[in-house]
Amino acid sequence: MTAGETIRGVLELTRPVNVIAASVLTFIGAFVAGGVTAEPIAVAAAVGATALAVGAGNAINDYFDREIDRINQPDRAIPRGAVSPRGALAFSIVLFLGAVVLALTLPSLAIAIATINLVALVAYTKVFKGLPGLGNALVAYLVGSTFLFGAAAVGTVGDVGAAAVLFLLAAVATLTREIIKDVEDVEGDREEGLNTLPIAIGERRALVLAIALLILAVLASPIPYALEYFGIAYLLVVVPADAIMLYAAYESFDDPTAGQSHLKYGMFFAALAFIVGRAALAVPTIG
Ligand SMILES: CC(C)=CCC/C(C)=C/CC/C(C)=C/CC/C(C)=C/COC[C@H](O)COP(=O)(O)O
Ligand SMILES: CC(C)=CCC/C(C)=C/CC/C(C)=C/CC/C(C)=C/COP(=O)(O)OP(=O)(O)O
Ligand SMILES: [Mg+2]
Fold first, then answer.
1. What is the pLDDT of residue 160?
2. Measured between alpha carbons, how far is 151 from 89 in angstroms, rounded to an integer?
3. Among 16-20, 29-33, 247-251, which is the least confidently predicted range?
4. ipTM of the complex
C-alpha cells in the first residue's frame, strides 16, 4: 500500500461530502438565527466542531463496521486494506478530541448539544445501530441537531421555531434515507446479527414506513415560507427538491441503492433551499 493510497483511505474514512454537508447545516443554523456577522468566530468554531465530529463519527463507524463492510461495502478503506483498523480508530479519536476543543469555546447550550452528539456518535454503531429504528432515529436526530447547534453557537437559538422546523424537516428526511439504507444493507446486517428495522418488520413494510415519513416532511416543507422564516425563493427551490426526494423514495422499492443515493441529492438540494430562502429575506425585492 503506497503512502498516497493510505492518505486517500484516511480521508475517505471521514466521508468528506457528509462532513461538508453537515457543516453547511450548522452554518445555516447560525445564519437563520441571525448570528453570522455578530459572532463569526463562534460560527467558525461550531462549523469546525461539526466537521471534526462528523469525520470522527464516520471513521469510528467504519472501524466498528469493518466485518460487516467486508460483505456490504468491500471497497471501503478498511476492508480493502488502505487503512488498518487501529489506524482508523486512532484517527477517529484525534478528530473527536479536536471537536471537543472547538466545542468548549462555545456557549453552554452549544456545548451541551455537542456533548450529547459526540457521545451518540461513539455509541451509535455498537449500541443503537442494531436496534430496530432506534439507530435510524439517532442519526436523524444528529443531522437535525446541526441547525440547533449552529443557532446555539451564536448565543441564541433565535426564533426557536425556525431552528425547530428545520430540525424536523432534516431529521424526518434523514430517517427516511436511513431506513432505505438499511434495506440496502440487509444481507450484511443479517450476517452480523443486527436486528435493523427491515429485518425486524420486513423490507417492504420498512420502505412503506420510509416513504410515508417523507410524504409528511414534504407536506410540511412549505411551513418555513408560511411562517415567514424564508422568502418566496425558498419555495422555488424546495418544491423541485421535494419532487426529487419523493421520486427517490419511490425508486427505492425496486432499487434501494439508487433510491438512497438520489434521495441524498434531493436532501442537499433542500438544504440549498434553506440558504436561498433565508438569503432572499435580506433582499426585499425577492423576499
Ligand atoms: C422535506 C425537506 C425540505 C427536508 C429537508 C432535508 C434536508 C435539508 C436534509 C439534510 C441532509 C443533509 C445535508 C445531511 C448532511 C449529510 C449527513 C451527515 C448525512 C447523515 O449521514 C449518515 C448516513 O448514513 C451516511 O451514509 P452515506 O451518506 O451513504 O455515507
Ligand atoms: C453538531 C455536532 C457536534 C455533531 C453533528 C454530528 C452529525 C451531523 C452526524 C451526522 C450523522 C453521522 C455522521 C453519523 C455517524 C454514523 C454513521 C456513519 C451512520 C451510518 O452508518 P451505517 O448505519 O453503518 O451505514 P453505512 O456505514 O453503510 O453508511
Ligand atoms: Mg457503517
1. 65
2. 31
3. 29-33
4. 0.96
Domain boundaries, the chain: 3-281
Centre of ligand 1 from the C-alpha of residue 136, in Å: 12
Per the CB < 8 A criterion, the answer to whether 10 and 257 are in contact is no
Contact by Cβ (8 Å): 252, 203: no
Q: Ligand 1 centroid vs 143 CA: distance in angstroms?
A: 6
**39 vs 34: CA distance, rounded Å:** 9
* CA 249 – CA 60 distance, rounded (Å): 28
C-alpha cell at 100: 471537543
CA-angle at 116, arms to 111 and 121, nearest 5°: 120
15: which 3 cell numbers?
466521508
Residue 39 grid cell = 459572532
Question: pTM for the whole thing?
Answer: 0.94
Q: Is 269:240 a contact under the CB 8 Å cutoff?
A: yes
> Which of 54, 75, 175, 185 has most ligand 2 atoms within 8 Å of CB, for mutation?
54
CA dihedral 129, 208, 262, 187 (to 10 degrees): 50
| Minimal-distance CA residue to ligand 1 atom 18 | 18
What pLDDT does residue 285 have? 47
Helix (H) or strand (E) holding 67: helix 66-72
Under CATH, to which class is 3-281 assigned?
mainly alpha
Long-range contacts at 40-47 (CB < 8 A, ≥ 24 apart): 42/105, 42/106, 42/107, 42/110, 42/153, 42/154, 42/155, 43/150, 43/153, 43/154, 45/102, 45/103, 45/105, 45/106, 45/153, 46/102, 46/103, 46/106, 46/110, 46/149, 46/150, 46/153, 47/23, 47/150
CB 121 near ligand 2, within 6 Å? yes
Grid cell digits, residue 74: 468491500
Residue 28 sits at the vertex; the CA angle it makes with 145 and 234, to the nearest 5 degrees, is 115
